[in-house]
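Methods — Computational structure assignment.
A single polypeptide chain was analysed. Its primary sequence is given first, followed by the predicted tertiary structure written as structure tokens.
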Amino acid sequence: MSGINKVVLAYSGGLDTSVIARWLQETYGCEVVTFTADIGQGEEVEPARAKAEAMGIKEIFIEDLREDFVRDYVNPMFRANALYEGEYLLGTSIARPLIAKRLVEIAAETGADAISHGATGKGNDQVRFELGAYALSPGIKVIAPWREWDLTSRDKLLAYCDQHGISVEKKKGNKSPYSMDANLLHISYEGDNLEDPAAEPEEPMWLWSVSPEEAPDQPTYIELDYQRGDIVGIDGERLSPAEVLTTLNKVAGANGIGRADIVENRYVGMKSRGCYETPGGTVMLKAHRAIESLTLDRELAHLKDELMPRYASLVYNGYWWSPERQALQQLVDYSQLYVNGKVRLKLYKGNVIVVGRESADSLFDEHIATFEDDAGAYNQADAGGFIKLNALRLRIAAQKGRK
């Protein structure tokens, strides 16, 4: 790739991206700009500044994007009740469009020719970063070192560091053996013994939740306040989007909620086994469906359920900025106009149990639904004609001898 004078690198300060920073300088003879995002991964991001400065990098961007992440990405996705393949709450997937957006914005701000990332050639993240970048900046160039270099192992990366004077932590010590990704929505684990789908995850692996067996013997009750499909408060206290998710992660994790062990189909074609902790997200999904059950029209709710797998696949495969996802979002957001009210939950040993819901916009009419005398609110005799009309095609088929 020619004509590369400046590159914006998605930079964590870890081994891989530290090597990439120097590799870009040497391979392309270019200036490197680093971008480090705090999206709630639970690690200090400021040390990345010193590491970047040590490699002679002058333009360093470190940004707290936690509120942006939850408000503009997590919340819109949860309005759609998105689940990939029925289980995955898309914690890694939903962070990538935000990072891609800031990469191309910083490239424009700094006059960079290209962006770069540390995603491997086997995974989904390369697709998500690059589809997002091209959708937002069609002429941007993308450098993916893992698809170009021959540094294919940790030992080779460490040898490169020794050769080029890059300071990294080389001792494994208590370092997790898993490949991990974290943000405010979830933490994921891949690799090591998880590469055998038959192997049970080891208990010390889980970092955000206690095991259901070790969770408190007394349940925890919480009440969530909803406005237009988003949680805006917990137990009567108004909270920002990031504060809501932070609080839910803490209380749900303490009750053993949010663990998932999944074999998923990656967009690049392979199956992959991963484990996920999404405590707050697990509560959000259950509660959101509860408030929708009270406030959504039947056919609108069913339409949303039909479209949800497509929406989830678009997010998983990296099409957040596609016209089809944005069009679906318009429908989803319209459906949330009356999704207001309160949901009460009981959290107990890995379970999220809905114990109550109420809304001024409720479509539930107890005078009609009651098993007691409805005082004429509903004429039960009407059901006979309704059933016969709906049975007409079945009766005709049966008369013709069709089964």
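Note: The mean pLDDT is 95.
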